[in-house]
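Form 7-S
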Amino acid sequence: MPRSQLPYKPGMPQNILDAFDATGLSQALHAGQLSCRELMQATLARIHERNPRFNAIVSLREPEALVAEADAHDALLARGQPKGWLHGIPQAIKDLSATAGIATTHGSPLLAQQVPREDELMVARIKAAGGIVIGKTNTPEFGLGSHTFNTVFGTTGNAWDPARSAGGSSGGAAVALAQRMLAVADGSDFMGSLRNPAGWNHIFGMRPSQGRVPQVPAADAWLAQLGTAGPMARTVRDLARMLDTQAGHDPRAPLSLDDGARFAEALGQAHRASRPVRIAWLGDLDGYLPMEAGVLDCCEQALHRLAALGCVVEPTALGTAPEPVWEAWLVWRRVLVGARIAPLLALPQARERIKPEALWEYEQGQGTSAAQFMAASSRRTAFYQHLLGLFEHHDVLALPSAQVWPFAATERWPAQIAGRTMDTYHRWMEVVIYATFAGLPAISIPAGFGQGLHKGLPMGLQLIGRPRDDAGVLRLAAAYEAAEQALLRAAPPASG
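Output:
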């Protein structure tokens, strides 16, 4: 569309997007200090200016339709009928979630023309809270690989250096947040897909407890529990409010939690601990996990900040051999991912058009027997029981959110770390499997920035909580945030 025909001015002031988080915008909208139209116009202008550089938001709806929808939200406010805390706030949904009337491609050319008729449950909940869905956020093909690129939309560049990887698979959401194109966002996490891009873009990303956010509809409601949707935000209060919107039992998801937890409310409550929070620093698992130079140092600086808040940080051994855990993880992953890929292989020219990593997952799964899967499930159960033992002495487990700094966006994945060859396309992200495999809540908090060759590149620290203690890790992240405002206010260059 020619610039002269846009229903907004590309150069209009956008300071409202820089000055407020989603909660602040919500308060301004509900108080009548800002209109939904003004917020939509500012958002579209920001996307117009920055998205061509970073490629975070895809399938953007027509501006006229979005401004008209914002006007309708303004009319509801004028009548005293707000929908919820997200009323009038633009939202772009990760391109793995079904959105009615908007292409849901999964980053795959096989699904490039797929336009769902209905929203999935999480999207419906965001709309019910008043969010205006403007489009999608970019993701790697089928969400596989923690690097956001695909042949449908291209590569998403890191918010701090677009020549580097944004991480993934929620890379588009993380970059849109960091570049202030969105105020709050959804993502999903199977193998660190909320935590890695959050760490690499200097924002917060949370993988909730298993079952906290129901997946509806789902072909399988009983077995496929490793992946989960979750929130991403620049502030912990926005993270908690988005989780409140996403979470909640649904009878169509029989394993979804029904404990009625409210996370924004928990942040606002005084929490009296009988003793300091004890953090077990697992580091590189006594040398088992290869780490690029500077990653551990950066995370340890963040742990020093937590210690200054009164936390007790203790270097701790995992206490069980990690290689069998990885082998069990591979079995679970190949079975679940292979089942997702299998139906697509019936489409014309599927094998030629699908990414090789997806085919590898499928083919690996074809040789897996029921006995092998059950053995891997037993190993997973034993690992969970072992972690319960660690939580008898510690409240939180800490690990880096990645083993490398953001790498060149032209690479598919790191072939080596610290001289050690990676034997799979995702081995370089082994550090994130432990929270996933045990179904535990985990937050990636901004740890700081690299030095030397990695100067100015962000890194995150995972804080992994006890079973179902989502509120506890949120409170710890909020305490860190309150004490480290100077670090967390750091913003990436607008132009990269």
